[in-house]
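Render this sequence as a predicted structure.
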Amino acid sequence: MLKTTAIAGVILVTGALFASRQRSSRAADVPLLETPAWQGGAPRYGDDLLLRRAMPGDAALLLKHSAHNGGYRYDGRTRTLSVIAEEEWGRAGGPAAECGTQGPPLPQVLRIVQQSHTLLAEQRQIPTAGATALVLVESPSHRYVAVLSAAGPARPSLLPFLGSGAAEGQRVHQLVSLPDATITGNPIGIPVKSNEDVLAACWSPDEKAIVYHDVLFTHVSVVEL
């Protein structure tokens, strides 16, 4: 009897985890793109994502992990990644964005109230597509802010030192224009592998793309503006 109960418990837990992963990836508007070349090692403090165009004005966006040679080329027409060598990254003519240097705007401009996970501009609440506001990243020109929210409630991260970001349900990207702090454009569903995924956002230097990546660098999604 105990053995049967234990097996049933394992089946229920496995089914719940599978359902959780399925729910969190549903209704995404951009693909989840695996980055196997960046996997296999333990994450280190200071690891960073770098972005640049292959050439100024080029549609191809290059992505590089600071701890790995080479990188990936994102093709906006097919919405796919292909591996590139270190030399191709070095030949690229566009300026590079260091994602670790990007962050939220000044709190008096736009902020997330951590207790309620609501988005405020001064004392005015900005409605987000998801009930739980998670991430704010200001563009290099300070004209826009990328906002990531989740349909379900926030949950403790499996890696507490990474801060907030884990949540239940579909993740949604929105764009807030500054200085008026108004939502512009349509919400875009961002895929995750599981509710435990913690996502970060990074603007390309030309502000024509935002790359969402999980903090362990196992996958990315690209929103083109």
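Summary. The two ends are 58 Å apart (CA to CA). Residues 1-26 have pLDDT under 50 and may be disordered.
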